[in-house]
Amino acid sequence: MLGCLRFYLALWLALLAGWASKMLGRGSGSALPGRLALAICPDILGRLAQGVRQIIVVTGTNGKTTTNNMLVALLRAAGYSVVANLAGANLITGVTTAFLAAAGWRGHLRADLASVEVDEASLPVVLKFLSPRVVVVTNFFRDQLDRYGELDQTVAIVAQTLEKQEGELQLVLNADDPLVAQLSARTGRPAVFYGLSDLPANSSSCSGADCREGRFCPFCGRMLEYSYYNYSQLGGYSCPHCGFARPEPAVTGEQVDQAGGRLACRVAVKQGESFNIHLPLEGVYNVYNALAACTAGLYLGVPARTMAAALAGYQTATGRLERFVYRDRPVLLNLVKNPAGFNAALQLIENLEPVPCDILIAINDNAADGRDISWLWDVDFEILERLADRTGSFVCTGQRGAEMAVRLKYAGVAEKQIVYIPDYDVAVKTVLQASGRGVYLLATYTALWPVERIVRAYAQKERTGAARLPSVS
Fold first, then answer.
1. Residue range 54-81, pLDDT digits in tens
2. What pLDDT sits at residue 188?
3. Is 372 a catalytic residue?
4. What is the 3-state secondary structure (H, E, C) of the chain?
5. Measured between alpha carbons, how far is 160 from 147 in angstroms, rounded to an integer?
6. How many C-beta atoms surround the C-beta of residue 410 within 10 A?
7. What pTM was computed for the model?
8. 472: pLDDT strictly greater than 70
9. What is the pLDDT of residue 342?
10. Residue 463 binned pLDDT confidence (cut-offs 50, 70, 90)
């Protein structure tokens, strides 16, 4: 009886707190309800999860939110009822909030599936209450050293958690990342792999900040040999000493086209089926996100045509290449949180149209961002010298905006192009009213939300849609 009372007290107070938070403009309400509910009823997530038939978990360093949201979109297009933390709140508080919202005031949760993204370090805590049928792992990059520690520690946390999990568990793994591909052998869990074929513009070597992870074989410690790189350590690798190599993907992305600010790709399935996908997004890393979602979808029985149609109309999450229009000028908002992701975001400048674009970079060092901002010196900002004809002013803001301005100066950006404005509102207005033909906004976690809120006050959100019909063969 006491347990039942505690459950409903936690549920009602949590939902009330979330509603109040939104009404008062104090936040998105994506984590506070879960935090409150867990404090009152620590096992509430496990109780709510009993009303879900199957659970899918998406984890990894980069791409969790986009991959999970894509997967949710195609599952819902297939007619499933799905519980999901679409806002990207991926600690146990955010996951719990998603289940609370789905349960509603009556506390009765009945859903076909739950698809939730989970922070790598939080995976052991969350999986104490959830028993996933499928776990998707996107990639592993060095991220927030003050919180995660070195990369091998993060990989070990995920591997040990998956190994200890009870019951049947299917892994969906990125074949192109040696740090991810090792998980099947390390955990003894069955895996279905996805990967991307060699892109025409890629080379067999890389230098600078773009290739720091995954240099060594995770089994024997020797240097891996690469035949090509797609980005960072993702590509075609093999160990000449112990035989560890990129596994043959069951789902492969081919013929990637990045023209016109959109992505197109042919998805080849090992069983012989293939289909085309079109994404209203940019960046090779988003092809990987789509492949991960499609691989999980295929495993769960979603038809290829349904997935292609769902991805063509995909709506981006906050700060994941989110598009706005301000006085006929395109405005792009992107989350940056570690060197690999920041490098990928900078490389997009080569394909952005129209040019030149003015750029805002908002850097915070709150707990969710990582207190240690030395990672900014691992980002390849030096490529901005080569892209000088495509960039205008650089507006730096946030708690560590001054340090960001210094980093740009040392990267070779002309001093007259750099301005430091500590106030978010002034900084955003300044970059929106600059003379360039486009605007590109880059922000860390806790800077993302205030920047996005200010942009929404001045600019119109652009809704993406299917420009081309998907085809299946």
1. 999 999 999 999 999 999 999 999 999 9
2. 95
3. yes
4. CHHHHHHHHHHHHHHHHHHHHHHCCCCCCCCHHHHHHHHHCCCHHHHHHCCEEEEEEEECCCCHHHHHHHHHHHHHHCCCCEEECCCCCCCHHHHHHHHHHHHCCCCCCCEEEEEEECCHHHHHHHCCCCCCCEEEECCCCCCCHHHHCCHHHHHHHHHHHHHHCCCCCEEEEECCCHHHHCHHHHHCCCEEEEEECCCCCCCCCCCHHHCCCCCECCCCCCECEEEEEEECCEEEEECCCCCCECCCCCEEEEEEECHHHCEEEEEEECCCCEEEEEECCCCHHHHHHHHHHHHHHHHCCCCHHHHHHHHHCCCCCCCEEEEEEECCEEEEEEECCCHHHHHHHHHHHHCCCCCCEEEEEECCCCCCCCCCCHHHHHCCCCHHHHCHHHEEEEEEECCCHHHHHHHHHHHCCCHHHEEECCCHHHHHHHHHCCCCCEEEEEECHHHHHHHHHHHHHHCEECCCCCCCCCCEC
5. 18
6. 10
7. 0.89
8. no
9. 93
10. low
Question: Tens of pLDDT along 280-325?
Answer: 888 889 999 999 999 999 999 999 999 999 999 998 888 888 999 9
pLDDT above 60: residue 206: no
- pLDDT at position 407: 96
d(CA 341, CA 345): 6
Instruction: Kindly state the tokens that stand for 294.
Output: 């499609």
Among residues 239, 215, 60, which one has the least CA distance to residue 141?
Answer: 60
In this model, does residue 248 exceed pLDDT 90?
A: yes
Percent of the chain with pLDDT over 70: 92
CB 218 within 8 A of CB 272: no
The C-alpha R_g of the chain, in whole angstroms, comes to: 22
Q: Is the pLDDT of residue 392 over 90?
A: yes
pLDDT in tens, 25-45: 666 668 899 999 999 999 999
The letter for the amino acid at 144 is: Q
Q: Given a cut of 50, is residue 363 above it in pLDDT?
A: yes
Residues 269-281 have a mean pLDDT of 89
State the Cα–Cα distance between residues 143 and 221, nearest whole angstrom. 21
Find, among 307, 306, 257, the residue nearest to 286 by Cα.
257
Phi, psi (deg, nearest 5) at residue 397:
-145, 180
Q: Kindly name the residue from 372, 380, 389, 423 that is annotated as catalytic.
A: 372
The token pair that represents 105 in the structure block: 């005031």
Assess whether the previous peptide bond of 124 is cis (omega < 30° from 0): no
The two beta strands, 460-461 and 320-326, are: antiparallel
User: Is residue 261 within 8 Å of residue 282, measured between CB atoms?
Assistant: yes
* pLDDT beyond 50 at 217: yes
Alpha-carbon span 385 to 391, nearest angstrom: 10
